């Protein structure tokens, strides 16, 4: 039987009770359909994110034509999803002093997101080449560029202390300067009573930064955790999800966790409490890029709207279901209308 998880207690403070600040890498997504063989020949791990340098990005750029370009980045996708649901969202990141960076900021602002993303000189706006293979799986090659220059100064201007929740993408741990920004977010959130949310982002992120993530959980720093089943298994060293959840409950008994399982829906947990939430029906899965980002958007919107965790997870399923039905990681319809329609 599903168990009832109580609603999350939000910080006091008027309007900030509905505000979410998302911090992450500002990346332009360039998408193309490809076979598994093409992905492997490009030197990219199938179904994962591979970091590349500028030369590697240029080689991949030339390996395929045409590309479909959309504004992306995990945390920015989440912010756009929250805004589409009618919530209050902000994004903090770093773009290049180029046309791509200007378009990126404009695109997010048009989506209803408050943007704090100063142009960094010397590096171009980051790019993520996304190969979508049959079945909708995505394999990514990311050149961080200016996105890696997210600094504590940007965090100071982002308004963490005015937000109800600060949401961090795990990809930030891949950039040395961005880890300083993460530390500053943690510091400001603790001082202001802002809840801290972390997305595991990718199994390889978990493998590269396993100890740092475990420390954040053990210390009680993280209030809300997002991950898919593969990421959670990697984090706990478990072969089965129920065992992984038991281990997480021992490591971080107070964390409110959301684990996605694709078509099987998601599991919400806190300590020994569990609730399973189904996936939204999707006629055809075209591209899973952004599914986790939009799931997090739905959950964070629901939690900051005063809904209980299971109800918030259903909103996450609804938002993820919309985005996997088309190419690109941003919703193509107003998610608030889908929510109202049930």
Give a quick summary of the entry.
With 342 residues, the chain is an alpha/beta fold. The chain contains 13 helices and 16 strands. It is globular, with a radius of gyration of 18 Å.
List unreliable stretches of 5+ residues: none
Output the helix-strand order: EEHEHEHEEHEEEEHEHEHHEHHEEEHHH
Helix content: 25-40%
Strand order of the largest sheet: 7-5-1-11-12-13-14-15-16
Fraction in beta strands:
15-25%
Helix and strand composition category: alpha/beta
Helical stretch tally: 13
- Based on Cα principal axes, name the global outline: globular
Radius of gyration: 18 Å
| Sheet of most strands | 9 strands, mixed
Distance between the termini: 24 Å
Count the E strands.
Answer: 16
Q: How would you state the average pLDDT, rounded?
A: 91
Set down the secondary structure blueprint:
Blueprint: E1 19-23, E2 27-33, H1 36-41, E3 49-51, H2 54-63, E4 68-72, H3 74-84, E5 88-92, E6 95-96, H4 99-110, E7 114-116, E8 119-120, E9 126-132, E10 138-143, H5 152-158, E11 165-169, H6 176-192, E12 195-199, H7 203-208, H8 210-218, E13 224-228, H9 229-236, H10 241-251, E14 256-260, E15 266-270, E16 273-277, H11 291-304, H12 309-323, H13 335-341
Parallel strand pairs: 1-5, 1-11, 2-9, 3-10, 5-7, 6-8, 11-12, 12-13, 13-14
Antiparallel strand pairs: 2-4, 9-10, 14-15, 15-16
